[in-house]
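Ticket #4471: structure output looks truncated?

Reporter: J.K.
Steps to reproduce: submitted the chain below (142 residues) through the standard prediction queue, then opened the result file.
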Amino acid sequence: STPSSTMAPKAAAGRGGEKKKKSVTKSTKAGLTFPVARVARTLRFMRLAKRLGAGGPVYLTAVLEYMAAEVLELAGNACRDNKKKRITPRHLVLAIRNDEELNKLLGGVTIAAGGVLPNIHQVLLPKHKKGSKEGKGSSQEF
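Returned output as attached by the reporter:
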């Protein structure tokens, strides 16, 4: 009696014998949420070069995911500051224009229905009178 004869017979190879392995996406392998394969396909169709490496689309997808997360986090903070629950184009503009690096990157970008940052030039503000404490001159306090 040889060791191989005591072992259980193997399942027949071919159809139905072995279960198909679950496919693992490139995004899952890279630990990303954004689709790596879609970015790779877009890069191929853009024909930027004759050949495309395997790491390029992964890196680009990671950068895109990071940028989206950064903008959404800042816009969510602006949304919460305005006591709202839904991010609007206004919140995106406030987030981008108040962040120095994002403002530099998206300086020439106009967001529809976003508006502008609230800003009143110092010259246009009313002058404070240092002598009077009662403030009889104006009806509003600044």
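Triage note (M.O.): checked the attachment and the full token line is present. The longest helix spans residues 55-81.
Status: closed, working as intended.
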